[in-house]
Design brief:
By secondary structure, this protein is an alpha/beta fold. The protein contains 15 helices and 14 strands. α6 links the parallel β3 and β4. The relative contact order is 0.13.
Amino acid sequence: MLSQSEIISVLQMLKNENLDVRTVTLGINLFDCVSQQLDNFKANIHNKIKSLASNLVNMCDQVGEKYGIPVVNKRIAVSPIAAVGAPFDASQLVAVAHTLDTVAKEVNVDFIGGFSALVEKGVARGDQALIESIPHALAETERVCASVNVASTAAGINMDAVLMMGQTIKQAAELTGADDGIACAKLCVFANIPQDIPFMAGAYLGIGEPDAVINIGVSGPGVVKKAIDRAIKTEDGIDLRRVSEIIKRTAYKVTRVGELIGREVADNLNIRFGVADLSLAPTPNVGDSVGEIFQSLGLTSIGVPGSTAALALLNNAVKKGGAFASSHVGGLSGAFIPVSEDLNISDSAQNGFLSIEKLEALTSVCSVGLDMVAIPGNTSVDTLAAIIADEMAIGVINKKTTATRLIPVPGKKAGEMAYFGGLLGRATIMPVINATGANQFVRLGGLIPAPIQSLTN
């Protein structure tokens, strides 16, 4: 329970510390829309999404205004299109992406996720078509997001799919070269993808989910930073155990606030409430940064020695606080370190404190992975695939979700800036070892077998 002083602190979070509900995401099952006829399939998708989501944005705004807590993003996640659209070829699935984009604009959501495939153990016909369609689908639409799960602790790493995703990322970047490869900012490659992510670009509605469900994503890195700063300033003899407790209690309060909003939106729409995802997702705004938390903990910058330990402390405390606050915590829930979306992290990369190798080490204890990382445009397909494979290995061996959002920026070299705009921010292009070289390891293909940890039955 919260004390009177802690209730007052929640009000201060709302007023002064950038506390918000980062996203309300409506999951919609599309399996009853399946048809062998493309026009019928598109019409079924359009009609179902329109019928369920037409009042989503207005309801989020009404509930947010009622409590004085803004819902920043309103989004939709649908069943994996590779499964529900399995009869169609790549060009037809691009047309499906246009339908998703059109209906997303009509209901006024920010993004629609679920242009997705799950290929950790093999690539079926529909999966192959969807992966082939991704570059044009993302280049030709504004609000469609894609994700592909290529690995899991239970199945291992599908290296054929990893190489395909290297090729897909390269083509998507080239098709949007005039915008610094922005199509790649809407594409995540996962290991151990959860079925209930409300955050883009990974959101989709898993096979085991209800017909419709409301999931929420709560953020608040600025809130956590201010709580740490206050404690260090006012408490004598504070140590890391106490800091962890402060983060945990702050995460508890943030999660309770978010679930309140999510449940009321769900009740008013007569849709089941799913999970609260407490992820410290930053924005490019000053005061809303995960990177600044590292400085509050006494580090010069994220990326210097001690950063991995600090992130482990932060991620662990956030998860504990969220889990205590709600019986329905899901998604990713922890700390994100998206380079371009966090002004402080972007500056750390620009100032030489943060390399892609250190980022990879940090992803072993964060909630996602190599997120919104701009790299040279001449990075080869082999090297892209190898970076993905390394990140997938971290997830598979450690039984955790990891992902990559890599952006090879066409025509630009390491040290130059890439500009994506809005929530996606800007980033210094990081150097990559063997960027233009070949990599025979990733071209051996096949399946890297599941680790012994997978044998849990």
